[in-house]
Design brief:
alpha/beta, single chain, 25% strand, 199 residues
Length: 199
């Protein structure tokens, strides 16, 4: 069965995350992960295996936001699908991120629309929370963000990211259709096709 899909296995993804985590821990040292759901949930959980709090050797916490760009949701139109980010879940009080080093995690950077939305909105929330503090204290607790994606598609992007936010990708790939194992109903068939493609 020849098609234009690239099938990533759990092992493929795990190894990409393991390798990237070394650089992230060395350069950024996150103390919280913000997973973009649904695709960022599994990569965030695997990333957590490799990123420990250096002082306690414990796992760092994962918080979740739900964003949808391609999923058909109630009250969305056909025109919105693939063009407009829909917020389905958000963090609690924004002051939960104050003073943190937050690693935003998603599966793929395709158009960059979702990542742009997530970064913009999270930064906006933090800046609003900072207004409750005296100006002299704000810089000390301003949240630092970084981004990790399992795959970055090498193509023109619709969204932009601030240049001061570190960006990490497990792998750079052509503009191909990526099938992730957590999206599959028949994982055995997915793995069989992935193995055939390797031959």
């Amino acid at each position: 069965m020849a098609d234009d899909h690239v099938r990533c296995t759990y092992n493929d993804v795990h190894k990409l995350i393991a390798k990237a985590s070394e650089r992230i821990q060395s350069e950024f040292k996150p103390d919280v992960i913000v997973a973009i759901g649904g695709g960022g949930f599994f990569p965030a959980r695997v990333m957590r295996t490799f990123l420990k709090d250096p002082s306690t050797k414990r796992n760092i916490p994962i918080q979740a936001i739900g964003l949808s760009l391609y999923e058909s949701l109630p009250d969305t139109t056909e025109e919105q699908l693939g063009n407009m980010v829909v917020r389905t879940q958000w963090l609690g009080p924004p002051n939960n991120l104050l003073g943190r080093r937050a690693l935003i995690v998603d599966e793929v950077d395709d158009s960059r629309t979702t990542l742009h939305y997530a970064v913009t909105e999270l930064k906006k929330d933090v800046e609003m929370a900072l207004l409750d503090l005296p100006e002299s204290q704000r810089d000390a607790v301003r949240t630092k963000f970084a981004i990790f994606v399992v795959h970055n598609k090498l193509k023109p992007k619709s969204g932009a990211l601030p240049s001061d936010i570190p960006y990490y990708a497990g792998a750079e790939v052509d503009d191909v259709w990526l099938d992730y194992p957590w999206e599959m109903k028949d994982i055995d068939e997915h793995d069989r096709l992935a193995a055939l493609a390797q031959k």
